[in-house]
Amino acid sequence: MPGIDEVCVRGPVRLRRWRAADRDALTRVVRDCLPQLRPWLPWASGEYTGEDAAEFLRGAEEGWQRGSSFCFAITTGGAVVGGIGLEQRHGMRVCEIGYWLHPDHRGLGLVSCGVVLLVEQAWRGPVQRVQIRHDANNAASAAVPRRLGFTCVEGDAACEPGAGLSGVEWVWQLDRPGSGLQQ
């Protein structure tokens, strides 16, 4: 996906491309979030170390260089409070948005703003459909696409049941206006 901005701003939300210098901030915010992330995200199952953060940041840089994955820090008031990404997972025409947020910053619309910003970025390229996927038990993750007008389609994939997981993946999608795709 060519032409993805490295910084996107709307209201109190600033998305910016992750950089190697974010290692300590990323480690700190993930560690603070681990109890809330563990039920939903396999990478949050252990202790999150500085090396884990460095590995993620290297992968984020590689994805950006390939043009297939665009990972951003969610910031507000100058502080890193979460992460959000836009990734090609199903070819050039379909991409997926994933996100997580520190619990102290939930309920403020920060993730919703971030998703809107990334959908706008996606529509600048060849993308025709944006998806958000999450476990059926994750009500907080479901609230975002529901609020933004995504359509929930029947889960087309199952995830491995674990702590808090139902084993049913919900898929929400939003088609580019005028694309002719069926939801």
TrEMBL record:
InterPro entries: Acyl_CoA_acyltransferase (IPR016181), GNAT_dom (IPR000182), Ribosomal_N-acetyltransferase (IPR051908). SUPFAM superfamilies: Acyl-CoA N-acyltransferases (Nat). The lineage of its organism: Bacteria, Bacillati, Actinomycetota, Actinomycetes, Pseudonocardiales. GO terms for cellular component: cytoplasm. Residues 13-175 form the N-acetyltransferase domain. One of its GO terms (molecular function) is protein N-terminal-serine acetyltransferase activity. This is GNAT family N-acetyltransferase. It holds the Pfam family Acetyltransf_3.
